[in-house]
Amino acid sequence: MLIRESSARLTLIELGDLARNDLPAWLEKREETLREMVEWASSYLSRPHPEVGRKGHVCPFVKTSMNRGLFYLAVESGVPESSAEAAQALRGYRDWFVELARRNGSAAQYTTILVLFPDLPRDRVVEIIENTQVLLKADYVSRGLMIGEFHDGPPAKGGLWNPEFRPLKSPVPLLAIRHMVPTDLPFLKDDPEQLAEYRRRFDAQTPPAAVTGPPLAGEGGQGR
User: Fold this and answer.
1) Mean pLDDT for each 10-residue chunk of the chain (224 residues)?
2) Which one of 84, 108, 143, 190 is CB 3.0 to 4.6 Å from 104, fit for a cystine?
3) Helix/strand/coil (H/E/C) assignment for every residue in the chain
């Protein structure tokens, strides 16, 4: 388990904490939720799905992230009063993500943080999860990051290989943080500033498939 030195309220749960049954008392009531999300990441994100429309896992990166110990879970308890309040909480995880990724060296691209909002009532999920993603996306992109929204609605965004597939479905509402990758072009090309940031980072190495077809990983870190 990692605790943010500059902010004791921020905690990241590692897979090993669950494997060892080593959760502090204040997180024990979240154990079922945390285990459910690990199972979801293992059985959904880390496996092929017949509706994705391409070969490979739903997310090409999650299994490696989990295997390398770079997959972290965070719990935001309670219900934010607004998407602006949720966005403020996510900025702390954003900065921490950058620090963790620096420590991971060549494996940095596999760093993943899922920030869970288990107390959100169903009628506030879209407001908090989807609106917060919209509020934060430009800032994250400017730092070479992506932020994706997941909930059991699920979000209306269809898959890129199969528009009828709605891949951003998760049993608990969450926002996922990961690195931007060359195949993210379809998620950024419609915004001039985000496209410029993408080109600054990747234009010379953009694979043709990212220009002419769907990428391997979607905004939320899963293949769409």
Assistant:
1) 78 95 92 96 84 72 92 96 95 93 86 97 95 96 96 84 82 96 88 94 65 40 45
2) 108
3) CEECCCCCCCEEEEHHHHHCCCCCHHHHHHHHHHHHHHHHHHHHHCCCCCCCCCCCCCCCCHHHHHHCCCEEEEECCCCCCCHHHHHHHHHHHHHHHHHHHHHCHHHHHHCEEEEECCCCCHHHHHHHHHHHHHHHHHHHHHCCEEEEEEECCCCCCCCCCCCCCCCCECCCCEEEEEECCHHHHHHHCCCHHHHHHHHHHHHHHCCHHHHHCCCCCCCCCCCC
